[in-house]
Amino acid sequence: MPMWDVFGADRDTGKPLKQLVEADTEEHAMRLVGRSMLIEKVQRVEEAEPPLVGGRPPPAAHEYHRPPAAMWGQVSNYPAITSGASLLKFFGSIAMLFGSLGLLTGVAALFSTTDREYSASLILGGLGGILYGVLVRFVGDLGEAVRDIARASTYIANHQK
């Protein structure tokens, strides 16, 4: 069944609309959307020929199928990287927590005391702690990414045809 692009505006809001409709004829397409929109024009959608690559149609796309979990079991999980990354992420979270507390304390001290240097040092220290925590967590995530790359490349090397 042919496809039709119906251009127009929404009956309630007046916003421009374009709707793709499957119908036998142009009139049938207009009837399908006529209650919900004011129709400006209807245009048949032409199916385009696939582009040629070197004078031939492109090869069919291959779907990716994730390997079964049992096959991944044959590849090392790199426990040292996993535990190191977990520790880095934990200590990064702790640094972010203390940095946030320092920042909040500095802001509170800014409004409650006249010692601006003390407040500024707490604020800058808190911001530094937050930044440090973010970077440490990032390194932990990076370690896990390297582990995943190593596992995938080991799997591919062991299962090439």
Largest sheet: 3 strands, antiparallel
**What is the distance, rounded to the nearest whole angstrom, between the alpha carbons of the first and last residues?**
43 Å
Approximate strand percentage: 5-15%
Structural class: alpha+beta
If strands are numbered along the chain, what order do they take across the biggest sheet? 2-1-3
Basic shape? flat
Low-confidence stretches: none
pLDDT average, as an integer?
84
> How large is the radius of gyration?
30 Å
Helix content: 55-70%
Oligomer: single chain
Written overview of the protein:
It is built from 4 helices and 3 strands, in the order ββαβααα. It is α+β, with helices and mostly antiparallel strands and 161 residues long. The chain folds into 2 domains: 42 residues; 84 residues. Strands 2-1-3 form a 3-stranded antiparallel sheet. Helix 3 packs antiparallel against helix 4. The chain starts with a strand and ends with a helix.
Layout of secondary structure:
Elements: E1 3-10, E2 16-22, H1 26-33, E3 37-44, H2 69-72, H3 79-112, H4 116-158
Antiparallel strand pairs: 1-2, 1-3
List its traits.
2 domains; single chain; 4 helices; alpha+beta; three-stranded antiparallel sheet; 161 residues; flat
Short précis:
By secondary structure, the protein is α+β, with helices and mostly antiparallel strands.
